[in-house]
Amino acid sequence: MYAIIGTWKMSLQGLTEARDMLACGRNAADAVERAIMCVEDNPAYVSVGYGALPARDGRVLLDAGWMDGQTLRVGGVMAAENLRNPIRAARLLCGRETNCLLAGRGAEQFAVSAGLPLRDMRTQGSQARWREAMQALADEEPLTAYRGHDTVCVIGLDAQGRMVAGTSTSGLFLKEPGRVGDSPLVGSGFYCDARYGGAAATGLGEDIMRGCLSYEAVSLMRRGASAQEACEEALRGLSDTHRRLGEDAGSVSLIALSAQGGFGAATTLPLFPFAVGSAQGAYLCAARTTPQGLAIGPAAPEELDGVD
Ligand code: ASP
């Protein structure tokens, strides 16, 4: 049995390839890396990898995280510039006993020493988006540009029971240079323990960190919750915190995959698309917030027009 899950519509194409790899007996690590690289390499996806959303100074500064569910080792890069595939660096760093999280220039130097390709990650599109947003700021429009963000998170389980979680993002549009979100932070942006399952989050990193959301979801699976129950309960905990403090619900979504191949998703958004892959194929699903509660189910691409 094998299974794979990824955040947002943008993960579908890579997830489809990754699912085929799992179906051919490839390992979870190769499949998760493939799924995420597919998003990183495509400039049409504006919040991940090549052509992603710049920081306030116009640089594209990327975060990526990786966790091996067998060894519980993690790797990650933060605010990294010029890395063609941040997820490859995160995966390689995960093999190390020390120095497994590298920021800024250290991440770039590591990529060079590991023989990973560098690339100017800015595109004409990313620079145009940046100039337009900076103009809006100069015109004293409020920084609603922070709303532009999304992370590709993928969790995979292979036929040998190995599990891996990976994340990759440019974080918040117009973030302060050096800002690090939840995505490369183990426990917040992702967590994976092959005995129980994996979880990963997308949304405002500053909120996700407050609940160590991904660890919380895996810990609920350890205590017997299904992947779906774990997502709902972990997110409920964070929403309760917001309510108690009189704050807005925030924008946070969570996915999970249990060691038995069960899928889970929850969101504070009206609609959160995600993709799943298994022996049944790879397809899009959506989590919807309805007056009756959370509704999860398959979704046709045309139902998700205009949604990431
Ligand atoms: N969690 C990411 C961050 O805060 C952004 C996102 O997933 O939307 O950097």
Give keywords.
30% helix, 8 helices, alpha+beta, 308 residues, nine-stranded mixed beta sheet, four-stranded antiparallel beta sheet, binds aspartic acid, 13 strands
Q: Return residue spans where pLDDT drops below 50 for at least 5 consecutive residues.
A: none
Bound molecules: aspartic acid
How are helices and strands ordered from N to C?
EHHEEHEHHEEEEHHHEEEEE
Total strands: 13
End-to-end Cα distance, whole Å, is 29 Å
Mean pLDDT: 95
Q: Look at the helices and sheets and give the structural class.
A: alpha+beta
Shape: globular
Question: Could you please describe the fold and organization of this structure?
Answer:
By secondary structure, the chain is of the alpha+beta class. The protein contains 8 helices and 13 strands. The chain has helices at residues 12-23, 28-40, 86-94, 104-113, 124-138, 205-210, 213-222, 227-244, and strands spanning 3-7, 62-68, 74-80, 101-103, 152-157, 163-169, 190-193, 197-203, 252-258, 263-267, 271-278, 281-290, 293-298. A 9-stranded mixed β-sheet has the order 4-3-2-6-5-1-11-12-13. A hairpin with a 4-residue loop joins strand 9 and strand 10 (263-267). Helix 1 packs antiparallel against helix 2 (28-40), helix 2 runs antiparallel to helix 3 (86-94) and helix 7 (213-222) crosses helix 8 (227-244). The longest helix has 18 residues, at 227-244. The radius of gyration is 18 Å and the shape is globular. The two termini are 29 Å apart. The mean pLDDT is 95. Aspartic acid (ASP) is lined by residues 149-151, 169, 171-172, 181-183, 202-205, 208.
